[in-house]
Amino acid sequence: MVKLHEGGVYLVHGSEIVPASESARVEQLTGKAANQEEAKKGTIAYGIMKSHNTAETMDQLKIKFDAMVSHDITFVGIIQTARASGMEKFPLPYVLTCCHNSLCAVGGTINDDDHYFGLSAAKKYGGIYVPPHIAVCHQFMRENFAGCGKMILGSDSHTRYGALGTMAIGEGGGELSKQLLKQSYDVAYPGVVAIYLTGKPQPFVGPHDVALAIERAVFKNGYVKNKVMEFVGPGVSSMTADYRNGVDVMTTETTCLSSIWRTDAATKAFLDQHHRGAEFKELNPADVAYYDGCVEVDLSSIRPMIALPFHPSNAYEISELYDNLEDILRATEQEAEKVAEGRAHFTLLDKITADHRLQVQQGIIAGCAGGNYTNVVEAAHALKGRNIGDSEFYLSVYPSSQPVYTDLDRKGLLADLMDAGAIIRSAFCGPCFGAGDTPANNALSIRHTTRNFPNREGSKPGAGQMSAVCLMDARSIAATAANGGKLTSAEELDCWGDIPEYNYDDKAYQNRVYQGWGKADLELPLRFGPNIKDWPEQEEMTDNILLKVASKILDPVTTTDELIPSGETSSYRSNPLGLAEFTLSRRDPEYVARAKAVRDLEDARKAGKNAAEVEEVFKLIHQIPGQENVQASEVEIGSTIYANKPGDGSAREQAASCQRVLGALANITKEYATKRYRSNCMNWGMVPFHLKGEPDSFEVGDYIYVPGIRHALTENKLDDIKAYVLKNGQATEIELYVLPMTENERRIVMDGCLINFNRLGHANA
Hints:
The protein is of the alpha/beta class and 765 residues long. It is built from 28 helices and 32 strands.
């Protein structure tokens, strides 16, 4: 049972939920009248944010973090940005892990070139470097950095260590560069929503089942969007810390800002186990705490779940799926047709077996969600003495770190998996974002990983290739593997819960991880590879801007994987112009050519040689009242995209920077799916417009003129921006607006990007 409260609630004594509309009950329970403003300060989240806030008030936070983490898709760009902006050395512990493009299988030398760049940067600037296959970034941070009351910033969207008492946030690279430049993370004080847990999970229910049940309840209605999820209630203590970590990492898929859990003896045991007992302190809400919403979860009522393509929120109980198998699969096939747009074909109904089971072709247990010790142990127990068969189904298991791997090995659990036919691989995030174990065409994969977005598994509909992913817990994946790939609920087996104590041994870290924090040697050179390029220079914004629509996407949600594909294309992430060639390639393959053509128009304008089509557009501009004498020197030309709700998913700043280096000046939207994507747009000098009304007045190839945009940004008058669609010989007015921006964010956009903002000295203004 998952229940959402319609309004705010008070949590009294940590166990009594009192709806705000019944606040008189608070006085009955405590002897004191309810005070909502004071009670807001009673959340765990408030205390942690307050201790990290450098602003004078809590309304607009300016956060300084305790540590940061990046992986090998993002750390080169972040360091390049910080270098170009004047960074001297790392001012806080910064962990650089090689867990995403660690296979070095695509693009010649460029992946390992980036790894060596990371090592040289750690030595030069004083960082921590984790080589390939040693640990996935989030497991390393859990084991070595997360602690009660801390805040950690990461350039991966799944930066979540709330189960260990750490508020962690995944953001685009620009926000990490700011921390390296001793600037702050600026955000309005977020709402805090209680996730009130009761009961205890059934033995056959794993953390992914719990997470998917919550995801199904809160994603589509935006219940926790850009808020902090605070896990409280007696049910917290029914789970080990390892189990909680598995639930917590999936909070990212709700589009919340961060998460935090109350801590207890299990938290302390985890930290003790990892030689960091001093990092423990008990965190609980105050005797009276006010939350902006509440999600009640009866853990004992949750059953094994499956999230069908193409989102983690598209979740069902496995029994519910089987009760309506044909209807649900038929609807999923229809969604697949929309994703493929006629370029590929994906079927599910033909995967129903004679005994009314769904036959899958692949199973994956991996990464920061699936590769945890407890999950792999449960899978090994389920498969001990069994086999996965010699047909098309196969299973790959990726323990999340070398310490986890070695303890599983010493206990013989990996041998049990291998004897059953499973393949054991090293710590690697590839299956989660399409760079490892890509399924066959028209194959269905079941995965204990974080996402099942369209094409994230690595397929390419544009090339006629399409597969899809269902998310499931490791327990049900193992049960399915034991049944030869016929989809099977963990509830059908009776082997769960016998977890031997984990013996953490960090010799692999001692022997391989470069520990350079506080040991910067600025005389050392950085090691570059042929693919590592500087960011292209960007120009400052002119008084007015002229946008040409390069793509128009009317999907309900546009993921960052569609804006810039993950998988092997990420190999080019250290070459901004090279990576930009893949922008929107799996959603709108003509976008790059259109955007480049607009960039050519801007180059011609700067050279004083307006193209003929621009001259015609200026004739229309001059017909707009007040714009009769505007000159080309006052009007920067750039591309824009329209999307209803862009930015769900990854924190990768490339989703925005790739548009920018192709000449984009703005996004126009109904809403932004996540704060982090909107922040990426602003840090790369693009205006985060919203459109009032429907996008039926313009199409791809049309021009939109926005006069006085620089003045609007300077004066912070952004709630009503007049713009004009220029087509068919006339200028048609439309209304745009921008949600609140900080002074620095407005300045960054006017300066053209974060690098310019720092070079021009505006960071210290």
